[in-house]
Amino acid sequence: MSENTTTPDQPTAPIAEAQTEAPAAAPSKRRGRTAMIAGGATLGALLLVGGGVAIGAAVADDRDDDGFDSLSSSQRTQTASDDIAATTERTDDDAQVAPAADLGAADAAELSALIDAAKGVATGEPTAIDANRDGTWDVTLTAGDGAETEVRISADGSAAVHETESAEADDRAPKNVLDAATLATMVDAALAEQPGRILEIDADDDNRSPFDVSVLTGDRRVIDITLDASGSVIASEIDD
Questions:
Q1: pLDDT tens, residue by residue, 61-110
Q2: Strand partners for 203
């Protein structure tokens, strides 16, 4: 009998599963580093223009709720620049009305000069002198019939009538006025009580306490001082 030479069937190898898709290449670190540097430079410029980190942070906080993060890079830059400019403008406006270091008058001589300027454009006796935060002054002149004229004195010393108030039937000439001698007495007494600069001085018809003086102190407090006709201090208190 002949030998069977048939080669037995070879076992079939299992079909390999389809290869999984290779993971996408990681983004280039160099490109990310460049973007970070560019973004940092833009932010640094914005903060310097607007006044520093505080304004830059405020701008970011204000814009988060308004969809600021959804804007393009160029839109963000422009929007932040506009906000910083507006903040700077508001700061500048505020500075124009903030009390200056030399607000007020140092002595009676300065106040007497203001009265002389006021009398150059209106008639009456001085009964009040008030400093304004922009460096101007208001001097009130009261006529013999009680009519009042308010004269505005600018920082350069020029004077102009600001407003007038006609006399009424029960008005009369003022009992107490700020003539040169009285002014000197009241100012010296007020500054002896509280050193500083005179912001306001008023004379009225009160027989007991006819003069009121406001003094700005070195630590930015305002002290109201009430004096009698002789210059004696009746009361002194902080103006709230």
A1: 544 444 445 555 555 555 555 554 444 444 344 434 444 567 999 999 99
A2: 211
Cα distance between residue 121 and residue 185, in whole Å: 26
Q: What pLDDT does 75 receive?
A: 56
Instruction: Say how far residue 191 (Cα) sits from the centre of its chain.
Output: 28
Rounded to whole angstroms, how far apart are CA atoms 173 and 123? 13
Q: What is the pLDDT of residues 116-151, one digit of tens each?
A: 999 999 999 999 999 999 999 999 999 999 999 999
Dihedrals phi, psi of 145, to nearest 5 degrees: -90, 5
